[in-house]
Amino acid sequence: MQTVNKNTCKYCLDCGGCDYIDTPYSQILEIKLNNIKELYKNQPVLPGNLKDMEIVPSPTPFGYRTRCQLHIVDGKTGFYKKRSHELIEIERCEMLDERLNKRIKTLKFPSNYEGKIELYIKDGTVCERLVEKKYNNIFYQINEGINELIIDDVVSLSEPNHNDNFLELYCGLGNFTYAILKKSSDAKITGIDIKTPVIKKKNPEFIEADVLKGLQMLNGQNRLSDFNKLILDPPRNGAGKKVIDLLSRCRFEKIVYVSCNPLTLADDAQIICKQGYEWQSMKLFDMFPFTKYLEAVTLFRSVLF
């Protein structure tokens, strides 16, 4: 059984990146699943399959991260200690793709330099960029193996067909967009996010804007009623009441909601269900092995269809 401990990672006791340091991976999956069931059992609205919910393991518990940010202090690179700004200089991390570990060993900065650098793998190549601002992030999924399984599940649940007109919120760089169109090339899809692919097409159509402002624009154009299916993949703070209330102007056959935070998902689910949807199912995916975090893919169906 796979574990992370001081024998496999000499930094794990200090950096705090792995919540379950000495726990076998199979047990971690069970802990995460039981934690979600315990969290949800007293919620006003529950997924229909709560009792039989499943968690999908990461295909690669180690070496799964294809993206990381490293702090630079006095020219040295590493992670901060848990609840501290004290740097732990690292040579490698057991959770990182080996290509990133090799790049870390070559990083060199002047002894008086401080900042942050992001390493990520794009199209098989290790890329890097200095992070100039606190929230100046480029979002890429960090676990390619589990991300592919999530994409498959989202496509399966949404059941794309040639008559569909999808609205995709927090679409990013098209993680689900192109998979939906690959399944049904005649389906239409409009994605909204602060950062989107730089293309100008009628399909897919990308609106580069804050999601709430993008929805307000579509509403002003009387387009919200055109969409029959919704894909949601918000950040950790969820979609929120303002966004979901504006979506009440639509009547979707299906809403597929991808969440990285079970607490905000529970809040959003209550609002969605009050608008006439049934929370049919929820499946967990271990996007972040050896940590307390995970992803969930949920399905809401309109009670009117």
Descriptive account of the structure:
The chain has 305 residues and is an alpha/beta fold. It has 2 domains: 64 residues, no CATH class; 159 residues, 3-Layer(aba) Sandwich (Rossmann fold). The protein is 26% helix and 24% strand. The protein is built from 8 helices and 13 strands. Strands 1-12-13-11-10-7-8-9 form an 8-stranded mixed beta sheet, sandwiched between helices. The chain has a 5-stranded antiparallel beta sheet with strand order 4-3-2-5-6, with helices on one face. Strand 2 and strand 3 form a beta hairpin. Helix 6 runs parallel beside helix 7. The radius of gyration is 21 Å and the shape is globular. The protein starts with 11 loop residues before the first helix and ends with a strand.
